[in-house]
Amino acid sequence: MNLPPLVQTFVLHFGEMGSRWGVNRTVGQIYALLFVSPEPLNADEIVEALGVSRSNVSMGLKELQAWNLVRLRHKPGDRREYFGTPEDIWVIVRTLIEERKKREIDPTLSLLRETLMERPESEFERHAQARMREMHDLIDMLTDWYADMRAIETERLVQLMKLGSKISRVLEFRDRLGFSGKRNDPPSSDDEERSR
Question: 5-84 in CATH: which number?
């Protein structure tokens, strides 16, 4: 299988980017090839298209399956396994975010929670714990935000993303109307200044 120049450029770029994303070059190339392929491919077709060894392809496919980024498919009358990516790019994005969260964010949050339960023995540890608390609270808030975003249907999420900085203007308008979103809070000096 000879890859057209446009496809080859895309596949090679994903291979280069793979190392920056924490996967090897072959894994990046396999994923890019499967992503743009109009039909699922078997391992032999991937080997031929990329010019890499069968063992590299096998390991790469196992890694992509562990990330839930490729789907195993079968064809009637063919015993070989075929691989493809989900058609909906939002399914891919959501899967990638969820998998990265499980591998990177959740363990960090667990470590921070455990560390914050420790009793500090020195001023250095008290300072370190205070900084860790800031990090924990930020990651925890982002995790909650992610859970909210994950529950939103794709069409609504796209609309929300397209709003971009306009959301900030909506919040500013809400604040001018006196709806801070916080109940029973005394007015801040900023609120008093705006009301003058």
Answer: 1.10.10.10
